[in-house]
Amino acid sequence: MVQNIMTKKEYQKYAESKSPKSKLFRNIIRAFWVGGMICVLGQLFTNLLKNMGVDMEEAGSITSIIMIFLGILFTGLNVYDELGRYAGAGSTVPITGFANSIVSPAMEFKSEGYIMGVGAKMFVIAGPVLVYGILASVVVGVLYYLIK
Amino acid sequence: MAEKSAGNRTVKLKSHVSIVSAASIVGPKEGMGPLGRYFDVIIEDEMWGEKSWEKAESKLVKETISKILNKSKKSPADINFVISGDLLNQCIGSNFGLRDSGIPFLGIYGACSTMGESMIIGSMLIDGGFADNVVCMTSSHFCSAEKQFRFPLELGVQRPPTAQWTVTGAGGVLLSNEGPGPVITYLTTGKIVDMGIKDANNMGAAMAPAAVDTISTHFKDTGLSPEYYDLILTGDLGAVGKSICEDLLKREGFNISERYNDCGLMIYDRKKQDTHAGGSGCGCSATVLAGYIYQEMQKGNLNKILFVPTGALLSPISTQQGESIPCIAHAVSIENR
Amino acid sequence: MEDTLMTYINAFIVGGIICSIGQVLIDRTKLTPARILVLFVTSGVILTGLGIYQEIVKIGGAGATIPLTGFGYNLARGAFKDVDKYGLLGAFTGGVRAAAAGITAAIVFGYLASVAFTPKAKR
Fold first, then answer.
1. CA within 20 to 30 Å of B154's CA: A84, A86, B148, B205, which one?
2. CATH of the domain at B108
C-alpha cells in the first residue's frame, strides 16, 4: 500500500519533485519573438492602411479582420498547431490565436454535422473570452456612466 | 479461501489457459517507432479511409479481430466471448467495431488498463469452464482521444513535458483452453488507488501508485520475488510514472529496476518522435503485448512476464469539477511452459 | 522613416512582453489555456477602465492591440464611447459594437474554413 509509505499530501509533493518542469526560459524566448513578430505584422498592415489614408479607427478594425483571416487560413492549412507547439503563448495570445481557437473546434466537430458540430462547437474554447470580455466591458461602462 | 485464489487478491489458474494467437494494427507514428516491425499492419494515415476518427478506431477493432481469427484459423463461431473496451464515450470503438462480428460480446471499461481487465475476465471464463476460446482486445486512437479528452487537433497548444501521447492502435489475443503458446498463470486484480493527483497532463504520476499497489500485492500473494520474472511490464506510466513506480517499489522492498520496462516508453522513440513522457492509451499496452512481447515469447527470448496495464479512471467532466484522478492497474502473469 | 521603424520595434517589444507573460502563466501555474485567455481579455478591459492600457497602446501600437488584452481594450473603449453618446444604454451597446468586426470576421472565416479544410493528425 502506497498510503503506508506516504500520505496523499506527501505523495503530491514527491510526484511534483519527480516531474520535469517546462523549459521556461526557452519557452519565453520563443513566445517573445513569435508573439512580437505577429504584432509587427499587425503594425505593418496598420501602417500601410494609414498611408493609404484610412482613418485610425478603421485601420484598426481592418487590421483585426486581416489578422483573423490569416490565423484561420493557417489553421486550415494545418500550420497553426505546429506554430503553437513551438511558440506557446506567442501564438495563443495574439488575436490570430483567438481565431485559431474558433476555427479548430469547428473543423474538428464537422463530423457531427454543420449545426450541432460546426455551429455549436465553434465557441467551445473562445466562448468564455467573449462572455467575460463583454461582461467586463458592461461593468466598466456602467461604472464610467456613474462616475462621469 | 476460494479454491483458485492465492492470497488476498490474486487468482491462481488451475487449468490450461494459453495465448494461441495475437494481432496488432497501429498508426503511422507507432509504425515508425522502435517496435514498428513487430506489428501486423501499419496504417498509412490515421483516418484509414473512414469519415471520422471514431469510425477509423472501430475499423482498427474490426480488422484486428479478423487478423486474430485468421492467424489461428478459427471462425467467429468457434469463439465463445469477445471482451473489449476503449476510451471513447460508451465504448463506441469496440461496440461499432464488433457489431458485425457475430460473437457474444462483453464490453468493459478500464481506461488504459482495459487489456489487463479483459485478460483477467477471459482467463477466468476459460479456467471456470465457461468457454473454450475468448478474444481479449482493446483499442485507442490519438485523434479521437484528443477530441474527447483534450483539445481539437488544430488548436495551437503546447504540451507540458509530463504529457503523454495516445497510441493509435488496436491489439488483442486469443485465449484458449488448448494449444501451445505461453500460458497465463496468475491474475492480480487492481484496486482503485487515488493519491490526489489532479493534473490530467501528468497521468504517469497519478497511475504509478496503483501499479505499485498491484505489483507489490502480486508478490505478497504469490510468494514470488521480482527475480522470478524476465520482464515486469507496466502499461503506460511513461517516464515520470516509471521512475516513481520503481522508486516506491524499492521502498516497499521490491527491487525491480533490472527487469522493468513500460510499454509507453518502448513504443516511441521519445527524443525523435516528440512524445514527451511517452505513449499512453488502451492500445499502448495491447499492441506492445500482441506485437513485441508475444513474438519474443514465442522465440523464447522472453519466458516469464508480469504484464501490468495501468489506467487513469477520469473523465473530462470529473477534471473540470476539480476531482483528483482515481487509477487502477491489473497484473497478468504470462509464462512459457 | 525612422518613426515608422520605431513603430515596428515598439510593437515587437510590447507584443513580445505581453506574450511572455502568457507563457509564464502557462508554464508556472495550473491555469488552463481557456482561463489564461479569459484572464487576458478581462485584464485588458480593466486596465483600460483604469486608463492604463491607453498608455501601453500609445507606446506599443499593434504590439498592444493585437494581443487579446487589446481585444479587451477595444471592448472597454467602445463602452466608453457609447456611454458618452447614449448614456447608460451605451454600456450595453459599446463593447460589442467595437468588437463587431473581429467577432464577425472570426465567425465568417471560421465557418468557411471549417467547410473547406479538415483537421490532420499530428505526428
1. B205
2. 3.40.47.40
Instruction: Please give the model's pTM, rounded to 2 decimal places.
Output: 0.95
Considering only CB atoms, which chain A residues are within 8 Å of B195? 2-3, 8, 11-12, 15
Domain membership of residue C122 (yes or no) is no
Q: Which of B139, B222, B216, B213 is nearest to B187 (CA)?
A: B222
Q: How far apart are CA A86 and CA A94, in angstroms?
A: 15
Three-state DSSP at B73 gives: coil
CB-closest option in A24, A73, A137 to C95: A137
DSSP letter at B300 equals T
Residues B140 and B203 in one domain: no
Residues of A in contact with C4 (CB under 8 A): 47
Domain boundaries along the sequence of chain A = 25-147
What does the DSSP assignment read for B144-169? Answer: HHHHHHS--TTS--PPPTT--EE--E
Q: Are A31 and A88 in contact (CB under 8 A)?
A: yes
Domain encompassing residue B244: 183-335
Residue type, B43: I
Distance, CA of C77 to CA of C68 (rounded, Å)? 14
- Closest C-alpha to A37, from A62, A70, A60: A70
Q: Are residues B213 and B161 in the same domain?
A: no
Q: Based on the structure, what is the number of domains in chain B?
A: 2
pLDDT tens digit string along C7-36?
999 999 999 999 999 999 999 887 888 899
Instruction: Please list, in sequence order, all residues whose beta carbon lies within 8 angstroms of the beta carbon of residue C60, skipping any fewer than 6 positions away.
Output: A39, C10, C11, C13, C14, C15
Count CB atoms within 10 A of the CB of residue B324.
Answer: 17
User: Measuring CA to CA, which residue among A127, A81, A119 is closest to residue A100?
Assistant: A81
pLDDT digit string, tens, across residues B278-330: 999 999 999 999 999 999 999 999 999 999 999 999 999 999 999 999 999 99
Q: How many residues does chain C have?
A: 123
Predicted ipTM of the assembly:
0.95
Structural domain for C69, as ranges: 2-116
d(CA B184, CA B14): 10
Q: Domain boundary residue among B123, B151, B176?
A: B176
- Same domain? For B217 and B234 the reply is yes
Which residues pair with residue B26 across a beta bridge?
B42, B169
Whether B65 and B124 map to the same domain: the answer is: yes
Q: In the listed set B159, B176, B193, which residue is the last one of a domain according to the structure? A: B176
Rg of chain A over all Cα atoms, to the nearest angstrom:
21
From the list A111, A108, A113, the residue with the least C-alpha distance to A125 is A108
Cα–Cα distance, A137 to C98 (Å, whole number): 11
Max intra-chain CA distance, chain C: 55
Cα separation, B247 vs B230, in Å, equals 19
Position C2 confidence tier, pLDDT thresholds 50, 70, 90: low
Nearest Cα neighbor of B98 from B139, B121, B65 is B65
